[in-house]
Amino acid sequence: MSFLRNAAKLFNSVYLFTWDTCIALANLIAPNLKPGSVIPHGRPGAGGKWPEFVPPGKGDSRCCCPALNALANHGILPHDGRNIKFTEMTHAVQTSFNLSSTFSIFVPTFAANMLHRNYKTVRQIASNILIDIHSSQDKFDLADLNIHNGIEHDGSLLREDARFDPEQDKPSLPLITELFASATGKDAAGNLVFTHADLSRASGKRRTAARATNPDFTLNKSQKGFASGNCASLLLVFGGRVADLEPFLTEERIPEGFESRVLARWGLSLLVFNLNIFNIERAIKEEAVPTVMAQNETA
Ligand code: HEM
Ligand SMILES: *[C@@H]1O[C@H](CO)[C@@H](O)[C@H](O)[C@H]1NC(C)=O
Ligand SMILES: *[C@@H]1O[C@H](CO)[C@@H](O)[C@H](O)[C@H]1NC(C)=O
C-alpha cells in the first residue's frame, strides 16, 4: 500500500513539473496579459475591486503567511481561517494572484503532506482505492501552517523567530520597518520598489541578526529555498512595489485597485519562480558571526 502510494506521489510530481515546463514555454510564446485584465470578470479583485477588508477578530485563525491571512481578511478564504479545504486554497491563490495551475497545486499539496492530510477532498478520492478513506482529512485551519520547521522557518523577514514569537500569526512591525528601509529601486513609472538585490541584502542582514540572537536558530537548504521563495513572491506578484506592500505586509490587507503583476498568460510557473529563488538565494551574504552560534549551522 505504501509502495503504491509513494509511486503515485512520484508520478504526480513528475507529471506536475513536466506540465509546468509546458506552461512556462507557452507563456514565453503567448503575448502577455494587459494590465487591468489579469483577474477575470466576476472574481474577487476584478477591476481592482476587492471584497471588504475585515481585520481578524477573537477566535479567528491566522498564520505566518501574509497572503493567506490577507485572503481570509477579505473573505476570499473563510474569514475565521478555519476548516479550509486544500483545494479551496489552490483556487483562491490561483485566481487572486494569477499563479499557474501547477504552482497553485504544488504548494498546497506540500502543506497537506506536511500536515499528514489529504490534498484532495474525500469526495474526490472516494473512487481512488490507493488512499485509505478512513484516515482522510482534507481540511486545515490557517494556524496549522505555523508548525516550526515545516514551511515556517527562522530568519523570516516579517516574523520574529518561533523561539520569541511561538504564535507566528502577526507581523512584526519593527522587522517590517527595517525591511522597507532596504528598498532602493524605481520602476518605469518612478515608484519605489524592491529589487532582487535589495531582498538578498535584507535577507542576509536578517539571517545574520537571527543567528546571533536566537540560540535555537536553524536554517537548512530547503528552508532557505522557502525564504527566498517568499522574497520572489514579493517581486513577482507585487512587482516589489512598496506602496502596495505596505498595507499588504503590515495590515495583511490588499489595497484598493491592486492587481497581480503576473502578466503571463497561464500564470506564474514554478520554473520562473524557481529561477528567481535561485537568483535571490545566490546573492545572499551573511556576515561572520560569533563562533558559539556557528555550531547551529545546519546547511
Ligand atoms: C499557496 C499556498 C501558500 C502556502 C501554503 C503558504 C505558506 C506560507 C508559510 C508557512 C509561510 C511562513 C514561512 C516563514 O517562516 O517565513 C509563508 C510566508 C510567506 N508567504 Fe506564503 N504561502 C502560500 C502562498 C503565498 C502567496 C501566493 C504569496 C504571495 C502572493 C505568499 C507570500 C508569502 C510571504 C511574502 C511570506 C514571508 C513571510 C516572512 O518573511 O515572514 N505566500 N507562506
Ligand atoms: C491568469 O490570468 C488570465 C487572465 O485573466 C486567465 O485567463 C488565466 O486563466 C490565469 N491563469 C491561471 C492559472 O489561473
Ligand atoms: C530541513 O529541515 C526540515 C525540518 O527539520 C526537514 O524536513 C528537511 O528535510 C530539511 N532539509 C534538508 C535539505 O536538510
From TrEMBL:
Domain of life where this protein originates: Eukaryota
Pfam families in alphabetical order: Peroxidase_2 (PF01328)
Q: Do the record's keywords include Heme? A: yes
Annotated Heme haloperoxidase family profile domain ranges read 49-275
Could you tell me which InterPro entries the record lists for this protein? Chloroperoxidase (IPR000028), Chloroperoxidase-like_sf (IPR036851)
Keyword Oxidoreductase: yes or no? yes
Q: Where are the transmembrane segments?
A: none
The protein's required cofactors: heme b
Report keywords, A-Z: Heme, Iron, Metal-binding, Oxidoreductase, Peroxidase
Cite the GO molecular-function annotations of the record. Answer: metal ion binding; peroxidase activity
Q: Which Gene3D superfamilies match?
A: Chloroperoxidase-like
User: Sorted alphabetically, which PANTHER family does this protein's record hold?
Assistant: HEME HALOPEROXIDASE FAMILY PROFILE DOMAIN-CONTAINING PROTEIN, STERIGMATOCYSTIN BIOSYNTHESIS PEROXIDASE STCC-RELATED
Q: Its family?
A: Belongs to the chloroperoxidase family.
Name of the featured protein = Chloroperoxidase
